[in-house]
Amino acid sequence: MNEQIRSWVDQVAAMTRPDRILICDGSEAEKDALITESLASGELIELNQQRMPGCYLHRSAPHDVARTEHLTYVCTEVKEDAGPNNNWMAPDDAIAKLTPLFTGAMKGRTMYVVPFLMGPPGSRFSKIGVEITDSKYVVLSMRIMTRMGKPALDHLGDSNDFTRCLHSLGDLSPDRRFIMHFPERNAVWSIGSGYGGNALLGKKCLALRLASFLARKDGWMAEHMLIIGVEDPQKRVRYIAGAFPSACGKTNLAMLLPPKALPGWKVTTVGDDIAWLRPGGDGRLWALNPEFGFFGVVPGTSRRTNPTAFDMIQRNTIFTNVALRPDGTPWWEGHDDPAPAHALDWQGRPWTPASTEKAAHPNSRFTALASQCASLSPEFENPEGVPIDAIIFGARRQRRIPLVYEARTWQHGVFLGATLSSETTAAATGKVGVLRRDPMAMWPFCGYNMGDYFTHWLEMGRRAARPPKIFRVNWFRTGESGRFLWPGFGDNLRVLNWILDRCEGRGNAVDTAIGAVPTIDAIDRTGLSVSDADMIELLKVDPADWVEAVATQDELFRMFGDRMPKALIEEHDDLARRINAAITPADLVGRDNGA
Ligand code: O2Y
Ligand code: MN
């Protein structure tokens, strides 16, 4: 055992006082023992093993069902380094606040020591973490989401270069819940939650918040992005990275099945949530997925919406907070099967279709190995990652934002990312359906001042001689009656194909105030019943409708004071000028410009 890990484990044990310490090796035998113990303690419920072998249900505490951003802190020595995008506490104050909560927290419990590797084994870009936790569910989930145990220890050798991730369930009370990040000390302390990103510390805490901080220092990028390969009928594969705010369909897009009307096309999955990008010697940006599994939203996942994910979760999957049918199989809203006459809801209470509450929690999740994903890219384990042709920024917007448009330059693309905003969903606590600014989909995950983060993005574009082209997409635009104008799902490939055409100097577009928008026939609609009128609506850029958007972008940028890069302020001013030039007085008569 690595001496540095051993001495840290001793320190933590002296504080948390567990009854037992288990150093996890990630083996099958260890997994089986943890499952047996979890079934006995009720932390897991066995699902129907004939129908769904290796599948289990976990019910989290009812008040512990989503990431809790108001309890998540970035603890830098200087407050401004965390920025207005993060809650901040001085590192020593945070340690002083959490030490009493961790003291004796593991009495009567086992302390698990979980070494894990983020990124492919043997990759010079991979990072090591060690999570100490008192939750068996966390260990079993980390075994799916990361390369856990031996590959991590082999990669680490006797080095001290690992992230110290300390986690305890505590008493699961939101009043004593904190997720504290210490970027300058390469550490995370999390207590009071056993749920997802609050507790599986390799994911949002290490691979995004701490990694983004490290990435700025070391000249790379840690982004909230999916990575896909798009293979054309000639078998040429090009790669797209896409940033979308939480629960905007990244997993579905990452596993896209092409429509029948586009024979010979194929999408392969490199990642569905996190991308680490670096400039390669060829001047391009190369991306890898540091994760080993998928922690996807369950409601809405079906053979119709995402057959690849649906098949993937029929075995060796941990379900969290879904409903349980009498035959021992899980069910959720949006499942292909109709609602069962009787079930237990996500809290284990009797449920019938007449119940007023949902059977599955809207943020219920599956945790499944990437290796079970039929569309997994053959490059998934490539230690160098894949070269990115295009970056897309997407969000959930019913109005104003066209189906797709292209940035004029890298700098303009950074502006498109910086001004991303989305209608909220259930992935984090808070109101659903309100418009929230989410630059680069990183607002909850950027581990430092976002003004500096924008500067870093601009710098990365300068460093890469052949940076990807940048696009904005919006599959969620609605018509007058609230009907989605674009079918979404597999047909999104049609939009991706226009994007890839544009990357090669093809694909028709018109220049508008906001960027280059496809001409009405530029996106292939073969076999698709989207009318010309809907297409016009989908691609419409209404300058009058953009006036207020431009004003609110200004509010966001002002938050960052002198940390805000001038280049993006210039982009903003340029947009304002272009919008004003495009507007006619008649456009503004009797308009409601609500955001
Ligand atoms: O991590 C959680 O607790 C739920 S939210 C989530 C889960 C998987 C991937 N992304 C997210 C997110 O909020 O972006
Ligand atoms: Mn995410």
Structure description:
This protein is an alpha/beta fold and 595 residues long. A hairpin with a 4-residue loop joins strand 10 and strand 11 (187-191). The chain is globular and about 75 Å long. The protein is built from 16 helices and 31 strands. Strands 1, 4, 5, 6, 7, 8, 9, 10 and 11 form a nine-stranded mixed β-sheet that branches. Strands 12, 13, 14, 15, 16, 17, 25, 26 and 29 form a nine-stranded mixed β-sheet that branches. 28% of the residues lie in helices and 22% in strands. It starts with a helix and ends in a 13-residue tail after the last helix. 3-[(carboxymethyl)sulfanyl]pyridine-2-carboxylic acid binds next to helix 7. Residues 224, 246, 273 line the site of manganese (II) ion.
